[in-house]
Amino acid sequence: MSLAFGTRKGNGGKAGAGPSAPAAPSTQHLLRRKRRREAARTLAFLSPWLIGFSVFFAYPLVSTAYFSFTSYNGFGQPSFTGLKNWDYVFNHLPTFWQGLRNTLWLVVVMVSLRVAFGLGVGMLITKVKTGAGFFRTAFYLPYLAPPVAATVAFAFLFNPGTGPVNHLLGELGLPQPGWFASPDWSKPALTLLAMWGVGDLMVIFMASLLDVPKEQYEAAELDGAGPFQRFRYVTLPNISPIIMFAVVTGVIQTMQYYTQAIVAGKVAGGIAGNSGQQFEPGFPNGSTWTLPQMVYNLGFQRFNYGAACVVALVLFAISMAVTSILLRRKSGFMASDD
Amino acid sequence: MTLSNTLTGAPSPTGSTRPARPARPGGPAARAARRRALLNWVAVHSLAVTAALFFLLPFVFVFLTSVMTDQQALTTDYWPATWQWGNYSKVWDTPGFLTWWRNTLLYAGLGTLLTVVSSLPVAYALAKFRFRGRNLALTAVIAMMMLPPQVTVIPMYLFWAKQMGMGGSLWPLIIPMAFGDAFSIFLLRQFLLTIPKEYLEAARIDGCGDLRTLLRVVLPMAKPAVAAVALFQFFYCWNDYFGPQIYASSNPGAWTLSYGLESFKAAHHTNWNLTMAATLLVMAPVIVLFFFAQKAFIEGVTLTGVKG
């Protein structure tokens, strides 16, 4: 990845003809003008994003960092309070640590189950011969359901009173957990919801599985490899970059986990109203707290902007750390055409 | 992984195994192979049916509940005793529902248009121009893409609500889309990388300026990627809950479907039937859109992961 700059290859060669070549001043002049024109063109094409980057990324980041050292409730002026907010969040806000633990749980369980399930469904769909189109659509469809709608639907299906899921479990003589209403089962219920919407991973895995060279399977079969060995020694090495991609993007999505958790809490908690009544996220018993919900709660329900910004910065640090893992695998992400 | 038990590149199902088989059709080896293929077919397809039930049954239950009477929806019945299609018109006639629709369409439609128009030139520059700091810019795009929206929301809210006076509307969500969306830029760039330089050089030789090259040569070739980006952005806006919650919650006249659905649930908390009807009405448009644009969508999903 060269930090390429300046002009195109064509005249780059010409310019490098060496000091002995009698470079006419007019050529140099022309070259400089061309370079300037190209810089202006680049700037023009990038301009929407340059504005977006400064106004909607750089400025609010700096501002968030500033607010984290101030006391501010939206009225009057922010007043500098040093590390007070940091001390409050880290030492006097137990839900912060609960939110971090929940996030860790979701990263370990939800992400790995979703990736494994996505891979399984992707493999299954490559084997299906009859009705492949139907199955593909059926498996993909839930991914399209808007998160709020899907969460409300699951809150109904899994409600412990009249929900069809527990009714079915009861008829089969199986235990009937409280799902979204139980502190122990709320995260597993959210995990099921995430696995239901596995369509994106299924498509990615399906495409990468079809790209594995057939000859490798044939060679392995000639060597007497069984199905498990073929999976282990042919399939896995071929698709491992995609698995890595799925895991890292899954972790990043989990850092942002918000809508499903807050909606499930609200619906299962039976707390009425978007407007009037206040709803403390994390229902039941803080088992679904995540950091993004904490930013919302501290900032927009408790109007403690300083503490909200501390949590936002922690969230930022974790997200960027995960992203840098993705970037180190530069093969694909940063590839360029020259 | 039980799925790996099924053979890779297994012989096709029994019906089509007859031709091009060296062993005599009646021979014991051929019979064994045929039986194995049949077993394999049965195993794969029963797994597929099980998976399909897992993916589709929630929709079925939601639908069945949505046409029950208020009383029956409070029981554990699976099947509606009578079909209350009127539930759907009741939902439709709920005050505000049409407004939520209009707001969602405005947010998603305008947001998508602005995103595509502003992101394409940026993606083109990042893919095809050579300039100092290009990799730095690309890194910044990826960082923006990965940034949870909650990280910057406090200053952004203060900016839009206090300084611009745009609280209680969707404009704080729509206007930023005129300045490029990181995910769209990234996805378009990945696609534009695959366009051979020769096309661009030919256009230049023909006297095309950069903008004309982009619009006349690159855009027609990049149609699948543009379609995918537009679809993704439309879905993103349609599904967005956090944005409307922050900026529009104070004004019910600016709510979107995703945000309104939850308040609908809160207002009808004992009427699961109406809530499920509303839920299906929120799901329906994206699913219909998907069926019309299936190919573009799948290509887009693949582009994010595989071509990466």
Layout of helices and strands:
The complex is a heterodimer of chains A (338) and B (308).
Chain A: H1 9-15, H2 25-67, E1 70-71, E2 79-80, H3 84-92, H4 94-127, H5 132-144, H6 147-157, H7 164-171, H8 186-196, H9 199-210, H10 214-222, H11 227-255, H12 259-269, H13 291-301, H14 305-328, H15 330-333
Helix pairs in contact in A: 2-14, 3-14, 4-8, 4-9, 4-11, 5-9, 6-12, 9-11, 10-11, 11-14, 13-14
Chain B: H1 28-66, H2 70-73, H3 86-92, H4 97-128, H5 134-146, H6 153-163, H7 171-174, H8 182-192, H9 197-205, H10 210-221, H11 223-239, H12 242-247, H13 257-267, H14 272-292, H15 294-305
Helix pairs in contact in B: 1-14, 3-14, 4-8, 4-11, 5-8, 8-11, 9-10, 11-15, 13-14
What does this structure look like?
- The complex is a heterodimer of chains A (338) and B (308).
- With 338 residues, chain A is mostly helical.
- Chain A has a domain at 94-303: Orthogonal Bundle (MetI-like fold), CATH 1.10.3720.10.
- Helices cover 70% and strands 1% of the residues of chain A.
- Chain A contains 15 helices and 2 strands.
- Chain A has helices at 9-15, 25-67, 84-92, 94-127, 132-144, 147-157, 164-171, 186-196, 199-210, 214-222, 227-255, 259-269, 291-301, 305-328, 330-333, and strands at residues 70-71, 79-80.
- Chain A has a two-stranded antiparallel ribbon with strand order 1-2.
- In chain A, strand 1 (70-71) and strand 2 (79-80) form a beta hairpin.
- The longest helix of chain A is centred in the first third of the chain and has 43 residues, at 25-67.
- Chain A is flat and about 65 Å long.
- Chain B is flat and about 70 Å long.
- The two termini of chain B are 27 Å apart.
- Chain B has 2 domains: 2-66; 92-305, MetI-like (MetI-like fold), CATH 1.10.3720.
- Mean pLDDT of chain B is 86; it is low at 1-20.
- Chain B is an all-alpha fold and 308 residues long.
- Chain B has helices at residues 28-66, 70-73, 86-92, 97-128, 134-146, 153-163, 171-174, 182-192, 197-205, 210-221, 223-239, 242-247, 257-267, 272-292, 294-305.
- In chain B, helix 1 (28-66) packs across helix 14 and helix 9 crosses helix 10 (210-221).
- Chains A and B meet through helix 2, helix 4, helix 5, helix 6 and helix 9 of A and helix 1, helix 4, helix 5, helix 6 and helix 11 of B.
